[in-house]
Amino acid sequence: MAIAEDIRIKPSSETLLRPDRPKPPRNYAQFIRWALLFLGGVLMVMPLVYMISTSLKYSFEVYNLNLIPEEPTLENYTYVLEDGRFYTWFLNSLIIATLTTISTLIFDSLVGYVLCKFKFRGRYLIFIAILSTLMIPTEMLVIPWYLMSQQLGWLDTYWGIMFPGLMTAFGVFLMKQFFETVPDDFLEAARIDGLNELQIWWSVAMPLVKPALAALAIFVFLGNWTAFIWPLIATTDTALYTLPVGLSSFGDEADVAWELIMTGAAISTLPTLVVFLIFQRFIIRGVVMAGLKG
Amino acid sequence: MADTSQSDDMSPGARSGLSARWHRLSIRQKQVVWAWAFLAVPIVFYVVVRFYPTGNAFVLSFQEWNLLGSREWVGFENYVDLWNDPVFWIVFVNTFEYLIIGTPISLVISFFVAYHLDKVRFMHGTIRALYFLPFMTSAVAMAWVWRWFYQPVPIGVFNNFLAQFGIPQIEFLQSTSIALPAVLAPAVWAGLGFQVIIFMAGLRAIPPTYYEAARVDGVSNWTMLWEITLPLLKPTIVFLVVFSSIGFLRIFDHVFNMTTNNPGGPLNSTKPLVLMIYETAFGGRSQMGAAAAQTVVLFVILLIVSLVQLRILRDR
User: Which of A171, B140, B180, B268 could disulfide-link A244, Cβ–Cβ 3.0 to 4.6 Å?
Assistant: First the structure.
């Protein structure tokens, strides 16, 4: 610490402290660093760029490596949408991901809130029990879920696709962490004002953890939008496929042109990419929050 | 629950009815009732959708069942059969290959990017977004994009590119040696952005005074990296190692979609355990008991790998 104070006494310019390293080469190195990072970043998005550019090409142009189509066309999109299946799958995915996200936000925050703010016998046990389910991989549960769905007639229904994801242990843990930051005095004051516990949770505590709710919402929505193995098992009726399952079966059909597969891939990817580009800062903060607390 | 009935007994002769009972409760007792009321639906959910199926998977792994007849107890037969199945051992090795190649490569690259991006201000947000974008995609869609890249001339981008320089074609998905890394590549690619973001958050959390002090002492950047940055980043590294290892051990979407014409690649060379589970249970023969045994094996692998990693990394 004494050394750190020394720095403040001296002028804080690094060149003064380290005369052996003149300034221009440092800038040069810094430029190389920037250029390589930028190049790497461009390489990272190249697959996405190729996907989009190919979806805008006529089939005669597909095997050209040029990024910008010579004759851009939306023909692939009209073809795929007129076919109707992608439209259905898109709607299925949207409905399922939205409903699951809403359910997860409500229940995870409710359970997290109760486990954080209520004192009662058995609460530690319940917390541990819920957390323990994080160790169980989804793949272990799909067979029992399938058997259950088959018996109860849930296969090929929205409910059948959604029910395993209605709550998440990760969300309970995340929300419990965040409710710790809500002062008990706030809740006590609301109690004195005559609000019941449901009202206190919904209108006092929930608004205070909005950032955490948003972070959880991003993860849960993305997770359900891209979920594959369970929707694949739970549906055989093409009318109930989600986008990933639909795209998988579409790509597997005989003689499907690559530009149409790229169009399907673009349809299932663009919505989340656009959402990310709009809420970039916010989403990255959410990812860090969920990643580090979780 | 017990608390409410107790308070009932304590004051007999008072007003009857639910609302009267409710008003007789103390604030603390009311809180307990509220708590259990809030937890009622979630408890049912966790019992029915998490705990019961978990138990069911274990039970099923000791039974034989093809969905049609009745369940028959067969003891450890499913596990013994799996042990004697040569395909299982190929799959077992593949699953660990995904982990052993995927985790170090993705962590080294993402740390390298994060370390340098942390020192860059110009267009910082844009570059970060470029690295993060693939994380926002669906694995299925990207598997198909990469599958197209890997096609032979004149279809695939990679081979077209190589052909321009007169380099002979690579049969990415058809070769027994290259198919597995080829399938793994998009999984590594899609996960990089997340790891970069987490690493950068970890780097930000290191107090700058440490670096200032080291700089005064004339310590080289390399030494600072090894003596300050990496040791202080240990919690982040542990989290990412465990998190990404679990992801690679459970790889499925990419493999399934890149090899639909030949599931698991040539001679099963890309088949991971989850694909084997899927095929055993849903691939036509409906061997539910055998598949359940495989899921138990997956569970044990995940558990052991996580525990070993935590033990090793925490001690260092």
Answer: B140
Q: Which of B50, B147, B291 sits opposite A143 (nearest CB)?
A: B291
| B42 and chain A in contact, CB less than 8 A | yes
CA dist A55 and A264 (Å) reads 8
Is B113 an 8 Å CB contact of chain A? yes
pLDDT in tens, A203-214: 999 999 998 898
**Residues A231/A116, Cβ–Cβ less than 8 Å:** no
Q: How many beta-carbon pairs under 8 angstroms link A with B?
A: 271
Using only C-alpha atoms, chain A has a radius of gyration, in whole angstroms, of: 26
- With bands split at pLDDT 50, 70 and 90, how would you rate the model's confidence at B252? very high
Q: Give the C-alpha separation, B199 to B205, whole Å.
A: 10
Please write the tens of the pLDDT for every residue from A49-93. 999 999 998 888 877 778 888 888 898 999 988 888 999 999 999
With a pLDDT cut of 90, the percent of chain A lying above it is 60
- In this structure, which CATH number among 1.25.40.10, 1.10.3720.10, 2.170.190.11, 3.30.9.10 belongs to the domain B78-315? 1.10.3720.10
Residue B175 φ/ψ, nearest 5 degrees: -90, 140
Give the DSSP letter of residue B152: P
Q: Does the structural domain A84-293 have CATH classification 3.30.300.30?
A: no
- Cβ A175 vs Cβ A216: under 8 Å: yes
Cβ <8 Å between B120 and A33: yes
Q: What's the whole-model pTM score?
A: 0.88
User: Is B157 a residue whose pLDDT tops 60?
Assistant: yes
Q: Is A287–B197 a contact, with Cβ atoms under 8 angstroms apart?
A: yes
**Domain residue ranges in chain B:** 2-60, 78-315
B16 pLDDT band, cuts 50/70/90, is low
Q: What is the mean pLDDT of residues A90-112?
A: 96
A62: tokens are 């597909």
Q: Looking at CA atoms only, how far is residue A252 from chain B in angstroms?
A: 7
**Which residues sit opposite B64 in a β-bridge?**
B72
ipTM of the complex: 0.88
Q: Give B253's contacts (C-beta < 8 A, 6+ positions apart).
A: A228, A229, A244, B139, B140, B143
Mutation for testing the A interface, residue in B27, B68, B133 having most A CBs under 10 Å: B133
Is residue A58 within 8 Å of A71, Cβ to Cβ?
yes
Residue B26 touches chain A, beta carbons under 8 Å: no
B residues 150-179 lying closer than 8 A (beta carbon) to A: 151, 154-155, 157, 160-161, 164
Residues in chain B with CB shorter than 8 Å from the CB of A225 are 138
